[in-house]
Design brief:
Layout: H1 3-10, E1 13-15, H2 22-35, E2 39-44, E3 54-60, E4 63-69, E5 74-77, E6 86-90, E7 93-97, E8 102-104, H3 105-118, E9 127-129
Parallel strand pairs: 1-2, 2-6
Antiparallel strand pairs: 2-3, 3-4, 4-5, 4-8, 5-9, 6-7
Length: 130
Amino acid sequence: MCSAVAELLADGGLELSAVTDSAEVIELVKQANGKRPGQAWAFYVDLSSSQAPRLTVGLNGDRGVITWWGGSGTYGPADGANKDPVDYWLGGHHSQLGTGLELPADRALAGLREFLVTGQRPTCIEWVPR
């Protein structure tokens, strides 16, 4: 595993330009979930632009969260199941996320996998404005 990617993930996220192997990133995220559930990571198309797309993914055991920032608004999954806010940690900072963002972890990972390859909003998730 690339130590640079592992370090970036430990800091809470990374820019797509740092990714040479999407399977490696998925594996690191899964390992992190096994060691310390409740973590989240931001994946950026371009860190230098606040308007650039960003996918945020968190894992908490068999559940996950996923959100999309497309430059003009935030989107969450249409079928997010949590009825109460949920707690995740992004780069060591606590984040309480709203309702309707959690889904099975494998679906959150599928969205991340697609984003790492395309740099676009994942089509395997049905999105709604938040």
